[in-house]
Amino acid sequence: xxxxxxxxxxxxxxxxxxxxxxxxxxxxxxxxxxxxxxxxxxxxxxxxxxxxxxxxxxxxxxxxxxxxxxxxxxxxxxxxxxxxxxxxxxxxxxxxxxxxxxxxxxxxxx
Length: 110
Known about the structure:
- This protein is mainly alpha-helical.
- It has a domain at 6-78.
- Helix content is 62%, strand content 0%.
- It has helices spanning 6-30, 42-74, 93-98, 106-109.
- Helix 1 runs antiparallel to helix 2.
């Protein structure tokens, strides 16, 4: 098993926070209210409303991910970092790299 390098994980989480923050800003712009006086046609307006709902859902997911990333960043110095919050087994390094916001191993995440 690979050794967990806290400095590399910190850099990874900080980069993911920056990327997620940028996504959130974009989603906020795209989830802006659709103006009723916008003369885009009835069907186009319906599409815009549907797209707004999709962007709002994406915004909520990104905000949740950002919260989890910040939480994990704060726990990097905790001796329990890298252990599953449920079963207390070691989370594989590859999972931490792919999903640094996850507190659970693959088996407990489902």
